[in-house]
Write a structure and sequence with these properties.
Helix content is about 35%, strand content about 25%. The chain is of the alpha+beta class. The strands form 5 sheets. It has a 6-stranded antiparallel β-sheet with strand order 10-11-20-19-16-17. A hairpin with a 4-residue loop joins strand 16 and strand 17. Helix 5 runs antiparallel to helix 7 and helix 6 packs antiparallel against helix 7. It is elongated. The N and C termini lie far apart (about 100 Å).
């Protein structure tokens, strides 16, 4: 230190300055302070340059979602940053790791049992290269959001039991059909109906309905599925009446004489006969067509008896099918009004035969309903709603409301895409629905499957299968 002071004195002397001891002491103090201030300012400027560079570096953290895998790679390589870390990820269930010279990656899966979602402020702590031991690291705040699992936001409010036309929030049924006396296997039926999340969230009733019936004496299968209009206040009763009355009519019509079966045999033996075809057509109109008409009339009668009610308050679709195995194949006749889908699907043959197409209303998103009188006044259009066909065999006759068809097929055009039906068939299997003989659990399995998640599709869901 003395050598430094002597050197300074010599430099001052060469400049013709000969300070007193007091002046030299003050000079030293001022010189040291100025030098220190300059060094401090220089180091501060260096840190500000690094801080500005870090703040200017774009860091985008997309929102994560509870219950879903998350991974984002963030480029971060700033000159003058010797080291860094990220704080605040622990509550999210995510973690990060650095990629040398490139940046960092945040990944993981927020678990619903650990986190519900929310805003999580993260802190990027970083060390400027000129930082001395003991000095605090600098920080940059980062905004990070974990979106809640959408399913956790939906309420499940039971339907009040004291409302008009109360209906349970779900229903299911498995119908086992024994093999024929000669050992030929028959097909079984299963159906399930689940109130949609949109209705459950508000404590509103299920509007869908179904009914299955197998007649041991005549070997006819009868299936009905209906979707009550969400905008119609009593549509839940309209769908119930439609299914019950239509199936009851078919039971009575098919349980009498064997004239219809004989007409089918005659048609099979003489497919070119116009008279044989007309006879079968008349039977189908009398059985299936009249079943739809009787259902319409029964709903109309209920509306007239209910004080303050109108027919359109009971608006509902109707999918109706009768099916029987003959020695030459399976005969299926059907009626369809509204949306949803009826399809005869064969997994082995890779075929999907639609028994009609969804109705289109006057405006997008609309459909037609069984309760509309014009459905029955235009005879030509009405006959087009009736279908009849013979199949050598098939994997499943499926009938569903649009709560199933909309999320699984998305467009009407896709209903005619066999690959989409293959995907649905796999989806059922992978979703735990075992469509095998003697599986009474299939009804519960199907009901559980109907709880599948599809963003934006939360309508009532009903699916009936003959397999």
């Amino acid at each position: 230190m003395m050598q430094l002071e002597n050197a300074v004195r010599e430099l001052l002397a060469q400049a013709g300055i000969e300070p007193s001891e007091a002046e030299f002491s003050d000079f030293k103090r001022r010189m040291i302070r100025n030098m220190w201030n300059n060094i401090v300012q220089e180091r501060m400027d260096e840190r500000i340059i690094v801080k500005n560079a870090v703040e200017a570096t774009p860091i985008t953290l997309p929102n994560s979602r509870v219950g879903e895998d998350y991974r984002v790679e963030v480029p971060f390589c700033v000159e003058g940053v010797a080291d860094y870390d990220i704080e605040g990820l622990e509550p999210t269930g995510l973690s990060y790791f650095k990629t040398e010279g490139k940046g960092f990656t945040i990944e993981g899966r927020p678990q619903p049992e650990d986190i519900k979602g929310g805003d999580f402020p993260l802190v990027l702590r970083y060390k400027p290269a000129n930082l001395l031991e003991g000095e605090p690291w600098l920080e940059r705040r980062l905004n990070f959001i974990v979106n809640p699992d959408p399913r956790s936001l939906w309420k499940d409010i039971p339907t009040p039991t004291d409302i008009d036309y109360y209906k349970p929030d779900s229903d299911m049924l498995y119908v086992k059909v024994e093999a024929t006396p000669d050992g030929m296997p028959r097909k079984d039926m299963v159906a399930a109906s689940q109130r949609g999340r949109s209705h459950a969230h508000e404590g509103k009733p299920r509007d869908d309905h179904f009914r299955l019936h197998y007649c041991e004496q005549t070997e006819w299968y009868i299936m009905a599925v209906a979707d009550g209009a969400g905008s119609a206040r009593f549509s839940r009763e309209g769908s119930r009446i439609a299914c019950e009355v239509a199936v009851d009519h078919c039971k009575a019509a098919l349980g009498g004489s064997r004239d219809f079966e004989n007409a089918i045999y005659e048609y099979h033996a003489n497919k070119e006969s116009a008279e044989a075809r007309k006879t079968v057509s008349n039977f189908i109109y009398s059985i299936v067509g009249n079943a739809a008409l009787k259902a319409h009339n029964a709903i109309k009668q209920e509306a007239e008896q209910k004080e303050g009610a109108r027919l359109k308050d009971y608006a509902t679709t109707l999918l109706l099918a009768i099916c029987r195995r003959f020695d030459f194949g399976w005969v299926i006749a059907s009626f369809w009004v509204g949306d949803g889908a009826i399809c005869v699907y064969d997994a082995e043959a890779h075929t999907a035969d639609m028994l009609g197409m969804p109705d289109e209303g006057e405006y997008a998103g609309q459909t037609r309903f069984l309760t509309m009188p014009e459905i029955f006044t235009d005879q030509v259009a009405f006959f087009k709603r009736l279908r009849f066909k013979v199949y050598s065999d098939f994997s499943a006759l499926m009938m569903m409301t649009d709560g199933v068809s909309d999320p699984k097929f998305e467009t009407d055009a896709n209903l005619q895409n066999t690959d989409k039906w293959d995907a649905l068939w796999r989806d059922l299997e992978e979703g735990g629905v075992e469509l095998t003989d003697d599986n009474e659990a299939s009804a519960q399995q199907l009901l559980c499957w109907l709880d599948f998640w599809d963003r934006g599709n939360h309508d009532d869901r009903t699916l009936a299968i003959l397999y």
